[in-house]
What does this fold into?
Amino acid sequence: MEDVQFTVNGQSHELQLDSRVSLLDALRDHLGLTGSKKGCDQGACGACTVIADGRRIASCLALATQYDGAQITTIEGVGDQGAPHPMQRAFVEHDGFQCGYCTSGQICSAIAMLAEHRSGAPSVVTADLGAAQIELTDEEIRERMSGNLCRCGAYNGIVAAIREVADATEGSDR
It folds into this structure.
């Protein structure tokens, strides 16, 4: 057993965990945060995506001990019913979900993906790697979100939701 401390959704937690416990299992089983889903348990579907120290990760592949001292944001920390995050509102408005299973991972991934884009990180489809600002085309959005799968096929709504938030926050720090 190892002592692990991290801040999840702004709240500090100290846990004693077996060194083999995934971050996903620590969040779900030890902290009761069940918004992040266990889809494939192989890092291929994105249902378990959370934001760790500002970067999106597949929490099913991450050992909790690797994130000792980290700042973790799960879907529960993104917004709430009284004040949903703009991405959550956009997903509802654009029907960016159907069954909802992948939605928490999609939203966390989309929020972190927009931050990656704003920082100038290129993707596989970025045409000009030296560009001062990379245009966020639908092709860019689809490529950057390709690690998050939706069995229901709500991709058009997901892209529209991300596009709306990206356009609304262009030039801001959000």
